[in-house]
Amino acid sequence: MELINEPLPGLLELKLTVHSDNRGLFCETFNERTLRQFGVAANFVQDNESRSTAVGTVRGLHFQVDPFEQGKLVRVLRGAIFDVALDLRPQSPTYLQHSSIELSEDDFRVVWIPPGFAHGFCTLEAYTTISYRTTSFYNLTAERSIRWNDPDHGITWPVEADGATLSERDASAETLAQQINSKDV
């Protein structure tokens, strides 16, 4: 595994080392020692998988509030996504800035999203499946969402609002300003 980019402090884009031969390939998708070398001292407690059938499915922007904040190690198993992380750490020099990256099953990249970020993605291919490992268990009472297409966060998504497939929760998520005013951000 190698570090490719750190677009925001603590947000890491990693490339898996792939070994290929006539049988196919092998790659190590998680190594605690290697992540620690990159400054990720995380205790992962839960693995999640998400499959989206339609191109333009948007999930997010999701986060959990303290003390249940989640760090996420995200990778694509099938298909491709436009992945977004929004810095919600008030003390961060990049507070309320975001970073986006396209991930696919063929590029063998992984994104580490530290606690204190909202996370979301849009599928770029049908039947896209992602896997993500978290540092905190899911907690319904700590769960929050920011409206994916709120112009205040400045994210340019690869899908227009009328072409996005959304859950009811994501369609009715609060704006960034509402979240800030609620003191959750």
Quickly describe the structure.
9% of the residues lie in helices and 42% in strands.
Description:
It contains three helices and 13 strands, in the order ββββαβββββββββαα. It has a single domain, classed as Jelly Rolls (Sandwich), CATH 2.60.120. With 185 residues, the protein is mainly β. 9% of the residues lie in helices and 42% in strands. The protein has a six-stranded antiparallel sheet with strand order 1-2-10-7-12-5, with no helix packed on it. The protein has a five-stranded antiparallel sheet with strand order 9-8-11-6-13, with no helix packed on it. A hairpin with a 2-residue loop joins strand 1 and strand 2. The N and C termini lie far apart (32 Å).
Lay out the secondary structure.
Layout: E1 2-8, E2 11-15, E3 18-21, E4 24-27, H1 32-37, E5 46-52, E6 58-64, E7 72-78, E8 80-87, E9 98-104, E10 109-113, E11 117-123, E12 128-134, E13 143-145, H2 168-171, H3 176-181
Antiparallel strand pairs: 1-2, 2-10, 3-4, 5-12, 6-11, 6-13, 7-10, 7-12, 8-9, 8-11
Keywords:
single chain; 185 residues; mainly beta; Jelly Rolls; 13 strands
Tally the helices: what do you get?
3
**Shape from CA axes?**
globular
Q: Indicate the mean pLDDT.
A: 96
**What's the multimeric state?**
single chain
Estimated helix fraction: under 10%
- Could you say how many structural domains there are in total? 1
Classification by helices and strands? mainly beta
Largest sheet: 6 strands, antiparallel
- The CATH top-level class label: Mainly Beta
Strand order of the largest sheet: 1-2-10-7-12-5
Sequence stretches where pLDDT stays below 50 over 5 or more residues: none
